[in-house]
Structure formats: structure tokens, C-alpha cells
Amino acid sequence: MPMNLIESLHAIVGPAGFVNLEDGEPYLTDWRGRYHGKAMAILKPANTEEVARVLKLCAAHGIAVVPQGGNTGLVAGATPSEAGDSVVVCLSRMANIREIDTANYTVTVDAGCTLARIQEVAASVDRLFPLSLASEGSCQIGGNIATNAGGTAVLRYGNMRALVLGIEVVLPDGRIWNGLRGLRKDNTGYDLKQLFIGAEGTLGIVTAAVLKLHASLRARACAWVAIESVSAAIALLEHCRSACGDGLTSFELISRSQLDVVYEQVPGTRDPLDGSSPWALLLELADSASDAPLQATLETVIGEALEAGLAVDAVLPASETQRNALWHLRHIVSEANVRCGTSVTHDISLPISKIPECLADTEARLLDAGLVDGARFLYVGHVGDGNIHSIVLFPHEVWSTVGDKDALISQIGKIVNDTAVSFGGSISAEHGIGRAHRDELVHYKSDVELDLMKAVKQALDPEGRMNPGKLL
Predict the structure, then answer these.
(1) Whether 281 contacts 228, CB under 8 Å
(2) Measured between alpha carbons, how far is 444 from 428 in angstroms, rounded to an integer?
(3) Model-level pTM?
(4) Which fold would CATH assign to domain 219-331?
(5) What's the rounded Cα separation, in Å, for the pair 427 and 187?
(6) How far is residue 318's CA from residue 323's CA, in Å, rounded to a whole number?
(7) Across residues 214-226, what is the average pLDDT?
């Protein structure tokens, strides 16, 4: 990049928004540490106008742009390539709460706001923003939008597409589309915001959003349930939905093998029960009415499940501290796995009825292929919406003996994804495609779907400068 162009970019964002490349490692490496890129420049603009000026300048010089939020993604969707021919645009300085409209149940925020801050702001006005992720303290809402994030409350509230009413986007040529409308009904043509939600920054940079709020939850009831099989989990889910209706907010499945890794790797964690069952469920009811009899309802449901043989044991926390401890076991799994070894993680989505058979078939195929010697099968997922994180964990000492690591990851991924698709599923439920799964997408999308996606990309980013090498 010519020095005068670097100077022009520096002038746009100022000293506070220009990251020296020698300090750039956090922006050039993905969260798991598998991908390491290079960049011509790393910029942290302070507002939408600066983003627009950066993109306009990059367009004039044919420079690629890699948008980045909290860099907590699991598919390297915000990591530049090793070519070093792009500019990273990180939105972390854009963290303003623009407006709270309590009557309209909306909050308008900059894309660099962390998810946790938005949750806190909503709570401060007696409202709820229900998106909940393990990385909520550091992930940014722009990245959540770009990846159509899911999390633990999709069962009740939907994923990011259901939580966004309007967005502001800087297009590849530097133009700003202000679509910050807090409307639940707007039947005036194509719903353009949906093009950018889940597009992983390949069509433009989301710089702000109008988010849908909900009534605060004043009553909760939580349970940790030991079960013998995934089939039992599906049956219990049906029972809970019938008995609890919309009060059922979360229904999380965790394998014993995954819990063992957590207990081994994370000090202070312990099994809420006796540790003998092969599977556990973490489920939660919630209501906006403080006097809702959720505890009694859940006790009845769990009692019926125990009597019917769907559950073998259960514990209901008696305090908020105990409830948080249970959720900590669920949210700490990724960190525990990183400490233990290298995870070949998959983010499949399935029809709920097909989950048990698909998981069993996948394990059998991997064992038959001889690809998982010394590895551990781990599972954690949002069973209520059909999203299972199927993980093959290689302990550090095993992974160090693997020769062609990329080939092994690819072979394992092909079996897991082929099996999921054969059961009517998808290879990505909430993590996205990014760089990690880009080459796989062509095997699972029809020619018609790919043609339509490419047509959208061509229309909005004809030069292919937005987040190149990702998604398509």
C-alpha cells in the first residue's frame, strides 16, 4: 500500500483509531488461534462517517476490507488472509447507545456495543434483550448481526434475525444506507436488512441497529436433569413444551464426556449430581410476572419425567448463586476444551426428531473411518431449536502426533456434515461459514441457491472487496 494512502487512512481515523501493525496480533488471529493473517492497516473508526470515508477510499484504490467486531467467532470470519492485501476495520470504538424507546420496546445502538452492555442497558429501563451467548462480555452486536447469532434463548425468542428491526450499513463504495426504522410492519418491498444479517460482512459493514426489546423476566425456574439418552431428551422436550408453553426459554443438552472436560479443566466446577448419567439437560422457565408459579410447574414437570423414566435424577437450584453456577457449566465449555486440546467443532442443525439417530450414525461413521483414535466425542447444544455442537476433541498429546492436521479436520468435517445433511440438516446453525467452512458450502448448497447468493454478492460488491475469502 502506498505510504500516502496509509497516511490518508490515518488522517480519517486519527491516532486513536490507527493500530500499529506490530501491535496487531489480536486483530489478525482468530479466537481459536488457528488462523493467522496479515493486513495493510488496522483501523478503528469512531463513527459511521469515518467508516464510510474509509470504505470510499479503499474502493477508489481497489483495496479489500475485513470488518471485525469482538473477534470471538469460531469460523475465522473476521480474520484477514495471509496475503496482507486488506484493511481490517474494527468497530470497537463505535459503542454508543443512540436511543432507548421504552414505549416502542426498542434500543438503537452502534455496532461496537458489546452484547453484555446492551443487556445491561435494557435491564436499566426494565426491559430485556434476550440474546445470550457465552462470549457476551466481549462479542459485539455488529458481529452478532453479521453471523445471525443464536445462543441459549432461541427456543423462545428466535435468533438475531428475529431481534433486529432496522440497521445502518456502509456499502462497499462508501455510501451509507440508513435503515434504522423501529417498525414491526413495513411492507414496502424487499426487506433489505435481511440481506446483511448473516452475510458475515461480505456485502457491507453494519454500523448500527434498532433492536427489539422484550418484557423483563421477573420469575425464573431452572433445573439440571440427568438422563440416559438423547432420545429421552427429545421426549422430555415434548413434555416440557406441552406443559410449559412459551414459558420454556432454554433447553440445553450436554454430554457426560463434555462435562468431564469441564470438571477436569476448570477449577471450582463440580457435578451438580452424582456424575453417573451419560447426558444432562439444563432447562429454564421464565415469565414477566413476578408471581408466576414457575418453580411449582417445573417441579411437577420434573416429577412426571422421573416417574415416566425420562429422567433419572434432577436438582433445582435454591438461589440465584446456584442457578448461575449451573449456567457457568454450560457457558465455560469452549474455554475448557481449548485448555484440554484441539477441538474439531461442528455447528450442525437438525430436525429435532432426527438428532438421536444422526449423532449415533455420525459416531459410527467416524469410528469406522479410523479418524478419531485417541479423541473424545463431546456434545453440547440447543436441543430446543435443533442445534447441536458436535465436537471431536483431541488432547494436546494426541494432536501433537497428527501429521496433516488440515486434512484430518477436513475428513472429519465431511463425515459429520454429510451425515447431518443426509438427515435433512444444515452444516451451520449459528456460527456461520467464514473462512473455515467456505470450501464446504459448495457441496451442500444447490446450484440455484449458489447462483442466487452470487447474484446478490455481485450486485452489492461487484469487485469482491468486502471480507474476501469468506462465505463465498
Answers:
(1) no
(2) 11
(3) 0.92
(4) Alpha-Beta Plaits (3.30.70)
(5) 32
(6) 8
(7) 96
pLDDT of residue 361: 98
pLDDT in tens, 362-410: 999 999 999 999 999 999 999 999 999 999 999 999 999 999 999 999 9
Arithmetic mean of pLDDT, 256-273: 96
- Classify residue 426 by its DSSP letter: B
Fold agreement (219-331, 334-433): yes
Confidence of residue 3 (pLDDT cuts 50, 70, 90): low
pLDDT average, residue stretch 231-256: 95
Q: Between 3.40.190.10, 3.30.70.2740, 1.10.3720.10, 1.10.10.410, what CATH number should domain 334-433 receive?
A: 3.30.70.2740
β-pair partners for 41: 87
Distance CA 285, CA 222 (A): 6
The one-letter code for the residue type at 157 is Y
Under 8 Å between Cβ of 147 and 198: yes
Question: Pairing mode, if any, of strands 214-215 and 164-170?
Answer: unpaired
| CATH code reported for the domain at 97-215 | 3.30.465.10
Domain ranges of the chain: 3-90, 97-215, 219-331, 334-433
- The CA–CA distances, whole Å, from 302 to 31, 222, 274, 356, 456 equal 38, 11, 17, 21, 48
DSSP 8-state assignment for residue 216: P
